[in-house]
Amino acid sequence: MPSALPEGDPAPRDGVLPESALSGLGSRRFGLYMHVPFCVVRCGYCDFNTYTASELGDDPGASRTSYHRAVIHELNLARKVLGADAPPADTVFFGGGTPTLLTPEQFDAVLTVVRDEFGLAPDAEITTEANPDSIGADSLRRLRDSGITRISFGMQSAVPHVLATLDRTHDPERVPRVMDWAREAGFDHVSLDLIYGTPGESMADWRTSLDAALDTRPDHISAYSLIVEPGTALAQRVRRGELAAPDDDDLADKYQLADEVLGARGLAWYEVSNWARAPAARCRHNEIYWTGGDWWGAGPGAHSHVGGVRWWNVKHPAAYAARLAEDRSPAYAREILDDEVRRMERVLLELRLSDGLSLSVLDPAGVRAAARQTEAGNLEPAALDRGRAVLTCRGRLLADAVVRDLLP
Amino acid sequence: MIRNFCIIAHIDHGKSTLADRMLQLTGVVEGRQMREQYLDRMDIERERGITIKSQAVRLPWTATAGEGAGQTYVLNMIDTPGHVDFTYEVSRSLAACEGAVLVVDAAQGIEAQTLANLYLAIDADLHLIPVLNKIDLPGAQPEKYAAELAHIIGCDAGDVIRVSAKTGEGVEHLLNEIVAQVSPPVGDADAPSRAMIFDSIYDTYRGVVTYVRVIDGKLSHRERIKMMSTGAVHEMLEVGVIAPEPTKAQEIGVGEVGYLITGVKDVRQSRVGDTVTSSVNGATHALPGYRHPNPMVYAGLYPIDGDDYPALRDALDRLQLNDAALMFEPETSGALGFGFRCGFLGLLHMEIVRERLEREFDLDLISTSPNAVYRVEMEDGTEFEVTNPSEFPGGSGGSSPQKGTSPTGKVAAVYEPVVHATIISPSDYIGSIMELCQGRRGSLLGMDYLSAERVELRYTVPLAEIVFDFFDQLKSRTKGYGSLDYEPTGEEPADLVKVDIMLHGETVDAFSAIVHRDSAYSYGVSLARKLKELIPRQQFEVPIQAAIGSRIIARETVRAMRKDVLAKCYGGDITRKRKLLERQKEGKKRMKTVGRVEVPQEAFIAALSTGGTPEKGK
């Protein structure tokens, strides 16, 4: 079951943005996100906004074949709303769901509209998520030909019983093969997603997954602790006692192991859950999220942010398509952030980065709290001397507590 | 032509229903005005089926049988509080009567509290009329319980009157028997007036209404009266009788029961047991028996929302207008904030006060564990009373340094109140009850079989052991059949210690308790364990220690929190994450800080809710 959308203020029918949000457009990084809400099967842990064929039924508006037309419609709307000053996109990200369920023609069609309406910055990063199961050498070549520059594979684990608990259907042996194919197809940037803390996963299992991932020589790894999201099949199994709930100490041990092992093999953390082989290998699209940049999220349930306005689309693909068919904005609700909220967001987002947070963002009590947190071993003393709050490994595990302490 | 009587019964044995039926039969209340338990005015009384404050009502009865047949008598029925906490009030009610109707449920037999009140009636020299009620019940065993009653009061089983207050069967006969058996009051109509206060209640519109039984002389609405214990003189605004609504009269004469109103606003100026006389040419000797009610049990009451502190003070002030036994003074707790140290007559009294505060004044309260009152003798000969664990000299030898107001120096001896406890139960549970009483430092005084299957056990037990969770334990060990009554019998020296609970080295005052040395360890261990489950992990390790003075007797550790971060943070997670942060910061405001440790107030509340709910009457 997909999680619920936040509540917010009503969003205008035409999607128009306040003047304040549009001023400065182009001086900030700009990205486009395409949400592809389709999966062949739903994994038990996932609460993302995604649907299987049977869940969608035969609603024509929600069909996978016509989906790209609704997205294109939204891109046209985005261009209208952002106006003539809309900058070329620095990044494009296809996420899901399973974006590779789109046909190569659909990718082409969407990217053509992106080029026509916005243009692409030189060296634009164009990423798609992909499932090792449902992709082959040919389709990888086609994706590269369409202009995709970066692939992020959902590996999750190299251990069969862990994959089974996660409802992941791929054979672990397939990961090294798709990695090779991706490189053969010409992708310089290939990332792997891992999940740790799955019920039944031992420390040795996690070590096996980390080593297996590193052996395929990715230039980027995201490692997320398993979160038992309410409403998921996993949550139900935990509640019924079939599976043990993830244990915080175990998660902490596994995080520390990941940081150690990844660091030893040349990947440095740059965000709490992300490691890259070099600054150039970082995911620039995600960096837009974390540094207050602008992005337009197209697709059902996609979130956007432009100049201090956040909004999010209606969730269901049919409702989404219906809105656009009426030439209406698919936004469900929005919020206009005031200065204090923007400051709060800066603290909670930038503190998660290896570049850290400038102490100038904090009030005097926050600066004192930063000194306290440094003493407690959660912030780097050297960085503090340079005027920046940067989390230590221990501090990254307590990032939310540190954020609460730094804010009034 | 006056008969003054009361009804003694266990809470759900049908006293109020019987009173209702008498009101109807004597025509005092018309059928259509009748509501159930007419005399129990407070909501709590009606809901819990117990009488907290006594009432008196005047019933005109034209006898339908016996020697007085055809003659009209004035029956003054005085309803007695049914609970042990109010023993003193019961004894004053009894002193206003010449006879007592002892009502016992024909399906359950006599209960410990009834027995206690029965003994009070016997001590007061009242004529007893034994009655079995609820004879209409399918489970009634009138033969068996008539024999039991006859055995207890030493009468013939055939003398036990059988009634059903519900159907009215036998109630007329009972009224005739009251006329026939209870002697008319004897007093000197010409002597200076003396009336005994057996109850006083605060009425929002009229001020204090004082219920009296005139022993000698008469009280007229024109005179000024004097309270003999204090010498205070009041204007008499009104005298009257209750029939069953207050009805003004010119005067109430010798032997009569009625009420008087003086404009006094606080029941403490019109104390139960005091003697009222005329201010001019009044009596010189008060009636015997006046006693100032002293709290037996103390506990701290705190508003859950600190902003409610002034409201709590106002509410306690209001309750005190009607409850002379309620005492309170401000106290501050590091864990719970501002509140009041309150003194109660017993556990039911405490429970009732708390429930009234929550219900009538809409307050959410947390109460610390109740404790008894201790007397401490120091080696230098000084002596003081401890009503709050924080005043207790630390360590048993008193050699460790003290914080706060408790005296320094060496303790010579500590005395604790002991009670005489009576337990009535089916005999199957004797072993289990004895085990309970021995575990609570009780000593057996005696045991009697009331019938083949029911037994009465008598113990002396320290009050402190009773106030903890004794009654709950008794109920669970006897499958709900056991009943308990206790009355204070004095004090005994005891080896008592104060156990403190420390969080990260800081004492949490709300958890300090005075316990016997033998149970100090188990108290410390169980509370430390409980807190370990309730206190959220902090960024650092938090030791929870139980200590006697400076000696640690138990230790648990809340391990440091190692993970407090949401792994994912995509674009769509930002709003959600920020809202979560806002909620967490809101929650932090409800945290109490003990030293560096942040503890949700809920954790204190949960730790103090021992499940030891005080006696709810039954």
Q: State Rg of chain B.
A: 28 Å
Q: Give the CATH level 1 class of the largest domain in chain A.
A: Alpha Beta
Total of DSSP H or I helical runs spanning 4+ residues of chain B: 13
| Structure summary, number of beta strands of chain A | 14
- In angstroms, what separates the terminal alpha carbons of chain A? 35 Å
Sheet with the most strands, sense and barrel status of chain A: 9 strands, mixed
Number of domains of chain A: 2
Strand order of the largest sheet of chain A: 7-8-6-5-4-3-2-1-9
Report on the biggest sheet of chain B: 8 strands, antiparallel
Structural class, judged by helices and strands of chain A? alpha/beta
* Mean of pLDDT of chain A: 94
- Proportion of strand residues of chain A: 15-25%
Give the low-confidence spans of chain B: 48-54, 395-405, 611-618
User: What level of helicity do the residues of chain A show?
Assistant: 25-40%
CATH topology of the largest domain in chain A: pyruvate-formate lyase- activating enzyme
CATH-defined superfamily of the largest domain in chain A: tm_1862 like domain
Residue-averaged pLDDT of chain B? 85
Number of helices of chain A: 17
Largest interface: A-B, 47 and 26 residues
Oligomer: heterodimer
What class do helices, strands and sheet pairing of chain B give? alpha+beta
Would you write up a description of this structure?
The complex is a heterodimer of chains A (408) and B (618). Chain A has 408 residues and is an alpha/beta fold. Chain A folds into two domains: 9-290, tm_1862 like domain (pyruvate-formate lyase- activating enzyme, Alpha-Beta Horseshoe), CATH 3.80.30.20; 339-408, no CATH class. Helix content of chain A is 39%, strand content 19%. Chain A has 17 helices and 14 strands. Chain A has helices at residues 19-22, 53-56, 67-82, 104-117, 137-146, 160-165, 174-184, 203-215, 233-239, 248-264, 284-290, 317-325, 339-350, 364-375, 381-385, 393-397, 399-406, and strands spanning 30-36, 89-96, 120-130, 150-156, 189-196, 220-225, 268-271, 274-276, 294-298, 303-306, 309-313, 331-336, 357-358, 388-389. A nine-stranded mixed β-sheet of chain A has the order 7-8-6-5-4-3-2-1-9, with helices on both faces. In chain A, strands 10-11-12 form a three-stranded antiparallel β-sheet, with no helix packed on it. In chain A, a hairpin with a 2-residue loop joins β7 (268-271) and β8 (274-276). The longest helix of chain A has 17 residues, at 248-264. Chain A is globular. Chain B has 618 residues and is of the alpha+beta class. In chain B, the strands form seven sheets. An eight-stranded antiparallel β-sheet of chain B has the order 11-10-16-7-8-15-12-13. Chain B has a six-stranded mixed β-sheet with strand order 2-3-1-4-5-6, sandwiched between helices. In chain B, α11 packs antiparallel against α13. Mean pLDDT of chain B is 85; it is low at 48-54, 395-405 and 611-618. The interface between A and B is large, with 47 and 26 residues.
